[in-house]
């Protein structure tokens, strides 16, 4: 891999060092800003009040032969490489025409789990349905058994390679759900492991409480009693600083609208944002419910109705597409992409990394699937893993685009054009990854990574 060498630029005599000295300067870069200020029309879905009207539409908001300067972990300046010659920085990197994008965001994962479910993969290939596997005690409950049986240390060790794979794919922000503990102690264990992984690797981890994922065996035939327990555990774990958002699984093999409403009521009382697994296998109206609560996102949504597309648009709720699960389950009902586009609903893409229905640790592969299976454009796919993924986590004011004041989370790629991120499958295109908090364990592929942006 090409070395990543700093170069030096002599500031002009007019440079005011006190005002223009930066920590890091990247020059001779091609930049996919994903920013409406530079012509990215998809940015308007995150900022519907954006009044920028004098900027021509430019795919990806791209800038050629451009430069970015950072200070104190934030993007502090964007301009041409020529103008950057008047700037000073502690270190300057010549990117030699490489592409820079916002670092990717994986906004829906079940990354922390124990065990392995390749046996279910084999069973599905022999004609056993996902619902049949769940009814026979497999599915989520088999992972619950495996997760409960191991220590926090073992759970960390089993999860760590999955986290490394995502980082190696250009990801610096990840949502991680609980939901394989299904009791207080094991839900806590999962959330603590997620927090520790974020601390150890310096990536941004948003933890989501998903105890309303499945009915554990000790509550067999008592779903309402279990929902009572889920609501009782929530303030305990929130008080321990372990919950950033609350999720549930609203489906005919999981929980009803009324039961999910009780979970959401508790979350709202605690001031926690909500999201939902909805309309994956049937149309139960969960997306409308999450919109009624002003929720962050509705996820899966293969059976989403147009009426609820409208409600999501009005609420600003993100549609999170999970094409790897669609692919793994051999689904045929696609999410209503045309309707989502027509009503201006922001569409995010995620791996849905989980042991049963989406054992995927490549967000770029999910982008490719979003294009090939759901007919997204490559620009929509990149927006879905930057702009709109940030909105799905409530981070749209800090991450997801290259803009002044945003976090200096940047991915630097050896590609010819931004569409390559969705087009290329398996090619190691990441050249470097920069974030103000990334720590040494993330440097796994001899990437010439800049740890302090």
Provide a descriptive summary of the structure in words.
This protein is an alpha/beta fold and 453 residues long. It folds into 2 domains: 6-103 and 401-442, Urease, subunit C, domain 1 (Roll), CATH 2.30.40.10; 105-392, TIM Barrel, CATH 3.20.20.140. It has helices at 17-20, 81-84, 118-125, 130-135, 140-148, 152-168, 184-201, 223-239, 257-269, 286-292, 306-315, 323-328, 337-342, 363-374, 378-384, 387-392, 420-423; strands at 6-7, 21-32, 62-71, 74-80, 88-94, 99-102, 104-106, 171-177, 204-212, 245-250, 275-278, 297-300, 318-321, 347-349, 410-413, 430-434. Strands 1, 2, 3, 4, 5, 6, 15 and 16 form an 8-stranded mixed beta sheet that branches. It has an 8-stranded parallel beta sheet with strand order 7-8-9-10-11-12-13-14. α10 packs parallel to α11 (306-315) and α14 crosses α15 (378-384). It is globular. It starts with 5 loop residues before the first strand and ends in a 19-residue tail after the last strand.
């Amino acid at each position: 891999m090409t070395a990543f060498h700093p170069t030096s630029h002599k500031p002009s005599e007019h440079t005011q060092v006190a005002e223009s000295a930066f920590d890091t300067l990247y020059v001779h870069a091609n930049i996919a800003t994903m920013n409406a200020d530079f012509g990215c029309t998809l940015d308007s879905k995150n900022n519907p009040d954006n009044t920028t009207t004098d900027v021509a539409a430019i795919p990806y908001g791209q800038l050629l032969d451009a430069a970015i300067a950072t200070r104190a972990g934030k993007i502090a300046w964007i301009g041409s490489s020529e103008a950057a010659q008047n700037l000073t920085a502690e270190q300057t990197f010549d990117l030699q025409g490489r592409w820079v994008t916002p670092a990717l965001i994986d906004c829906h994962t079940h990354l922390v789990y124990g065990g392995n479910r390749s046996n279910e993969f084999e069973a599905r290939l022999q004609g056993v349905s996902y619902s049949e596997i769940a009814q026979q005690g497999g599915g989520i409950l088999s992972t619950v058994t495996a997760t409960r049986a191991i220590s926090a240390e073992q759970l960390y060790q089993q999860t760590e390679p999955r986290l490394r794979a995502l980082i190696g794919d250009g990801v610096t922000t990840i949502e991680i759900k609980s939901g394989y503990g299904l009791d207080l102690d094991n839900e806590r264990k999962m959330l603590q492991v997620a927090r520790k992984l974020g601390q150890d690797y310096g990536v941004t981890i948003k933890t989501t409480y998903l105890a309303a994922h499945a009915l554990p065996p000790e509550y067999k035939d008592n779903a309402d009693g279990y929902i009572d327990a889920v609501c009782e555990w929530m303030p305990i774990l929130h008080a321990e600083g372990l919950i950033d958002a609350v999720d549930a699984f609203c489906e005919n093999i999981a929980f009803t609208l009324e039961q999910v409403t009780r979970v959401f009521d508790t979350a709202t009382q605690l001031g926690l944002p909500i999201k939902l697994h909805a309309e994956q296998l049937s149309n139960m109206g969960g997306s409308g419910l999450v919109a009624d609560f002003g929720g962050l996102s509705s996820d899966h949504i293969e059976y989403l109705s147009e009426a609820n597309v409208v409600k999501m648009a009005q609420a600003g709720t993100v549609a999170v597409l999970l094409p790897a699960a669609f692919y793994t389950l051999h689904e045929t009902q696609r999410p209503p992409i045309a309707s989502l586009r027509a009503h201006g609903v922001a569409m995010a893409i995620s791996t849905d990394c989980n042991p049963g229905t989406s054992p995927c640790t490549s967000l770029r592969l999910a982008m490719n699937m979003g294009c090939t299976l759901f007919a997204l454009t490559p620009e929509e796919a990149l927006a879905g893993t930057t702009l709109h993924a940030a909105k799905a986590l409530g981070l749209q004011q800090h991450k997801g685009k290259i803009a002044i004041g945003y976090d200096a989370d940047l991915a630097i790629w050896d590609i010819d054009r931004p569409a390559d991120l969705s087009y290329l499958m398996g090619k190691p295109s990441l050249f470097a990854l920069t974030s103000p908090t990334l720590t040494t364990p993330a440097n796994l592929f001899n990437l010439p990574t800049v740890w302090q942006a």
